[in-house]
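Q: My labmate handed me this sequence with no annotations at all. I'd like to see what the chain might look like in three dimensions before we decide whether it's worth expressing. Could you predict it?
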Amino acid sequence: MTRSSILIAAAALVLANAAAGQTKYPAVLEGQAVLPALTLVPPPADAPADLAISGRYAGPLGKRVDTPESVPGISALSDKAAPRPTGISLPFKGQPIQGFSGIKNLRDGTFLTLSDNGFGSKANSPDAMLMFHVVKPDWKSGGVERVATGFLHDPDRKVPFRVVNENTPKRYLTGSDFDLESVQPIGDALWFGEEFGPYLVKTDKTGKVLAVFDTLVDGKVVRSPDNPNLALPNAPGPVAFEVRRSKGFEGMAASPDGKFLYPLLEGPLVTASGEPENRDGKRYLRILEFDVDKGAWTGKSWKYALEAPNNAIGDFNLIDATSGLIIERDDTEGDPALACKPEAIKADCFNVPAKFKRIYKVDFSQADADGFVKKVGYIDLMDIDDPQKLARQGGKDGKLTFPFFTIENVDLVDADHIIVGNDNNLPFSSGRALGKSDDNELILLKVTDLLKAK
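A: Here is what I predict for the chain of 454 residues:
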């Protein structure tokens, strides 16, 4: 092959990769702040007494355990992974500030974030309070200050089903009522994207529920198997639902003017045939549009194509009127350098180490005729440059990896930087170090080229 032929072929490959959204852009670490895994807060003084302890039902088989710190946390997030102790035990004395699952820049050096539903499921989280927080990372010291915490509650009985704390004055909500995964502040309200319904939940700034909205896709209500209104048949047989468990709203962006919300499902909808929604065998997720002032779905939607069938998304925020950032990741955790040898499933190595952990820039204005948003390019969270050696944990040879099972926080900081954070699944995730429960990490990344890409 001649030199000119080689150049032409190379150029064609670059163009093809760019068209497919496979252009990789650099990410440079400019700060890392850590909130220790075992960070707890007491429940409010008017909360039911049993909420002083959390995680009673999160041990093996969901059996109730009342003795604090008596059940070791075990990491085994994949069927192919050997169980590994994480060094932290359940139940907890207090409510854990853990599992950051959604973040929003408040433009004053602080960030609004929220704790995940509790301990991973509706069944095991009736004593996990639903909380949101204002946090302030200090990139110089490496610490994270909790500025404020709010607790969701429903004294006006706006939730349209029975909640765990039904017959209490404040009716504090728990991880058996909702699974909150994303948050957007608009005016005097907070909006939460949720997975059990899936629902949109509107509260005031204190966390008092104002409204709960069913999810409509193509004019029809869609539900997950955890939806409290899902009717089971009288005799054994198939149950129809459209959203797989834990695949409801994971990310949720807001338009810059606050007029619209754009919740994004974590997994594909299930069609009438039982197959996940796909185009030409490639699975996709729905991005829906909700009119905030009208309190109603507009009927508009877009599609986000996954790079692999079992991938999921972690968070979604817009960076301008037509483009945004989406975390796409696989279900793996751990440093590949500490991977087990093939076929050697052991507890002293990572059986299924982290592989696919990316943040894509997407463009709605360049969506195709079928509504698929354009993937402009991505950064690889397993290949972060750290030339200044700023990493406080996880850095090596001028690089930082972010090898967590769930990475569920991304937002714009300024024209050059984004913030990214993990969900540490306390006390079940151990992706940073073997035998140690993951902390809540926030990293500041310079990604100028990605943000400017078209």
